[in-house]
Amino acid sequence: METWAARFLFLISIRNSPGCHISFSSAWARLNREGHIQMTSRAGKLIVGLVGLFVLMQVVIPAKTNPPSDPALSLKAARPAHAAAVAVLERSCRDCHSNGTTWPWYSHVAPVSWLVARDVNEGRGEFNMSEFGTWEAKKQQHKLEEACTQVKEGEMPMWIYVVQHPDAKLQPGDVELICSLSAPAQP
Prior knowledge:
Layout: H1 4-12, E1 14-16, E2 22-24, E3 29-31, E4 37-39, H2 42-57, H3 75-78, H4 83-97, H5 112-126, H6 137-152, H7 159-164, H8 174-180
Antiparallel strand pairs: 1-2, 2-3, 3-4
Helix pairs in contact: 4-8, 6-8
């Protein structure tokens, strides 16, 4: 039985050896006369096991949803006087802290997909710009103060997110804009 894996291994690096069989210069696998792959070392078995595990992990698919939301209840609608600050949050925080997540290609490949889905779910649970207007005024104020503290301390946006999304990096003046959202309203 010849499989795609056997063909792939055969094409990678083959050489003839004196035993009337084809062996691989990597010395961890070989094709016998019947065309079956034979593992010749622990490293080869480990590699095949890891590839098999990776393929099996793709079966566990986390939910990646963008729940419907009412724009009238968003942070943008609740704080129209702070359009510049909201724009900074949209640029740097929207994917994890709103119902309008853009799911990148790597969010479809396990185990990274599990981490991305977890981060988005936790982010939405902590501060969801799409549902900001559903909270009481006290909770809104508290969440904006938390956001200010986290950006001041460099905790948000997460460094791993900024690596993949350089445009999310906070620019000079962005922290002050975000913190202006939590400033008490002037009469």
